[in-house]
# Entry
Amino acid sequence: MAMPAEMPKSDILLYVSDLKKHFEISNGLRTTGYVKALDGVTFQLRRGETLGVVGETGCGKTTLGRTILRLIKATDGYVYFDLPDDVMKNVIRLEEELHSLKNKDEPSEEDGRRTSELTDQLGHLRKQYSLTMMSERKLRAARRKMQPIFQDPFSSLDPRKLIKDSIAEPMKLLTDMHRGEIFEKTKELVESIGLSEDHLYRFPHEFSGGQRQRIGVARAIGIDPLLLVLDEPTSALDVSVQAQILNILKDIQSRMGLSYIFISHHLSVIRIMADKVAVMYLGQVIELAETSKLFSEMLHPYTAALLSAIPVPDPRTKREKIVLEGEIPSPANPPAGCYFHPRCPVAMENCGWSPRDMSKSVQHMLDRTRNIEATELPELVEIILDEPNWELEIVFSGNISDASLEIFRRIMAKEAERQGGVRFKAVKSIGIGEESTSIKLIMRKPDIPRLKEVAADHFVSCLIYDKTDVVRKGSYAEEASRIRKSITKTSA
Ligand SMILES: Nc1ncnc2c1ncn2[C@@H]1O[C@H](COP(=O)(O)OP(=O)(O)O)[C@@H](O)[C@H]1O
Ligand code: SF4
Ligand SMILES: [Mg+2]
# Structure
């Protein structure tokens, strides 16, 4: 009897859908909050392709890699890996439809019905196919096909084990290969990374950092994986050694047809290694495009800032560092609206200005030593924030008359025209407070940017590309070039 032909595999090796990882913060007794290290990441990776993941320290790159490998458990979201073509197509279609329904501002009754229908269908598929939901036993098969490579090869090489045993370990644990076969393969592997057989009988400390990283690579590819997750694989190495490792990785990839998720905060390394790049900011992908496009026609203001920021070579480690204006907000308490708005040089009034953002600016505006016009108003006493209602109450030492309110309006209008003053335009209404010694500001609620495809295979999450005139005219490239110009101006 003929065996049933195996279903053809999908060209999409990996599909990550709305992946989230929230780390609990606790004071020892109870949960006091969450660090949103990953906050809804979605992408596809083809066979043989490299996705570069770039962004400043703390943006969630390592967490992304570890969650995909299920070294840590996802809080939410799905990871589909190496599936038959029809299954993969089906889950992508359903997940995408569900995602867009969930993002609708005003879902209709029909949308609600469709949402529960999709959730139902996906429930079964997710349980069966998503790595985030599989039993440990089923996961074993996937684990054979995906391997991590970390920044510090010491973490994967046991200092007490001979190199031969370190390289052989995944083959022993994850395959049915015999001892003899494993040994033959180990010899082959050590040569493929440019070392020789007698190196097998040494310990990790007898090797340089670059050699150890090469041994780490040999160890990872012994089981013939389909995907390597490389987390800053060369960041700890000298520039001269970096190039060597990158060449070996490229060579292995083309020989074995591997897919890579290549994590790095070195733009130059990403540029060499990646076919397409995901730029991350505070746990989210904010731009995703083919590498050459991303570097020449970046759309997102953060990407533009990242690429225009001068990489500063650090003489001690010979590494480059990205230096960007402003502090990175904490992922435990991210800004409202667009997470990038407090640092964005081209932010608009709907980008996320909250009472929290306003408080300091109002204080600054009413600072009498700085602004002579502020002396026309009674002295500032305090600012009370009502964040849930998007309000702030500015309390003064004396009565606020209609005339004082006009003065306040005038000062604020001036402030709104200054550089960085756009937040004042997010004030929806100004009135005298209940106490008559205060002024109440009500802020407009921000819009939420979502990752959307604005050019072929070029995804961006920024409200500028949602503006009606931009969408109508399709003038995305014009907007992007305006953004780049204004960023070079502010950083000059
Ligand atoms: N085990 C953990 N517990 C709590 N917070 C964590 C943990 N691991 C990472 N984080 C936090 O998650 C965020 C993302 O970290 P990480 O993924 O390491 O970023 P990156 O690799 O881009 O530097 C950071 O704010 C970090 O402090
Ligand atoms: S949505 Fe765009 S313009 Fe607005 S703050 Fe974010 S990146 Fe800047
Ligand atoms: Mg990291």
In short: Residues 301, 338, 340-341, 344, 346-348, 351, 449, 462-464 surround iron/sulfur cluster (ligand 2) (CB under 6 Å). The chain has 15 helices and 17 strands.
